Amino acid sequence: MTQDEMKQAVARTACDYVAEHLPVGAILGVGTGSTANYFIDQIAGIKERLGGTVASSEATARRLAGHGIRVFDLNDVEAVGMYVDGADEIDGSMAMVKGGGGALTREKIVAAVARTFVCICDDSKRVGTLGRFPLPVEVIAMARAHVSRELARLGGRPKLREGLVTDNGNQIIDVHGLSITDPVGFETRINQIVGVVSNGLFAQRGADVLLLATLDGVQTFLR
Ligand code: 5RP
After folding, report:
1. Fewest C-beta in 10 Å: which of 94, 149, 193, 201?
2. What is the radius of gyration, based on Cα positions, of the chain?
């Protein structure tokens, strides 16, 4: 099975999970990326059960709308019952690195509001220690150099993601060479740098459920 086929398999399982666990009429938060895209295509088949969706990016909102799935502004909903999204890395404590697609800030906002966070990925994303995947940090453009210096002081090799402007009008610095042994503490430390909008560590609010595609099928892990 290819990685792409594994992403499709976990997207199908996630759709079944939503149908089984999200109350009819509740709002579903939807993530960003290639795995999330397969998931969006799947939930088109259960859209009548959903009260609507909240999107974590403009790209996701467009794909949802293209399937005729209702997309709400987060400010206009009372609650988000479940959030389903991929990850770039996930460790044994369900902490994640996210933001490879550049949508980390909105993803983090929707994840914070959601009652349950369901992470969907293939087993290449499972790691012992986070940091092999460069950690994305969204920054206000004028603070880019300052934030980069501070990130270097924390032991990383910051590199601007050239040509990318986020949905929020900001830039992304990818931090290479990290080995993140204290994800909760490191997430807090980066957030304290002036000029940082958010960082791609999802440790304080990790996943509650992991649906992991493997060659032996999709496995379910609970926090
Ligand atoms: C986007 C993300 C994605 O969830 C992450 O990059 C995984 O993407 P993919 O499903 O394409 O492997 O955080 O900002």
Report:
1. 149
2. 17
Give 32 Cα–ligand 1 centroid separation in angstroms.
6
Cα–Cα nearest to 168, from 76, 105, 74: 105
Mutate to test the pocket of ligand 1, among 88, 167, 202 (most ligand atoms within 8 A of CB): 88
Expressed in angstroms and rounded, the spacing between residue 77 Cα and the centre of ligand 1 is: 25
pLDDT at 6: 96
Whole-prediction pTM: 0.96
Q: Which ligand 1 atom is the nearest neighbour of the CA of 85? A: 4
Find where tokens 């460790």 sit.
91
Q: What is the pLDDT of residues 201-215, one digit of tens each?
A: 999 999 999 999 999
Does 58 qualify as catalytic in the annotation? Answer: no
Q: Which pLDDT band holds residue 119 (cuts at 50, 70, 90)?
A: very high
SS3 category, 80: strand
Confidence band of 219 (pLDDT split at 50, 70, 90): very high
Catalytic residue, candidates 107, 138, 150, 187 = 107
- pLDDT level of residue 18 (50, 70, 90 thresholds): very high
Q: Provide residues with CB under 6 Å of ligand 1.
A: 31-35, 85-88, 98-104, 107
DSSP strands (E only) in 43-97: 52-55, 71-72, 80-85, 89-90, 96-97
Please state, as a whole number, how many other Cβ atoms lie within 10 Å of the Cβ of residue 170.
21
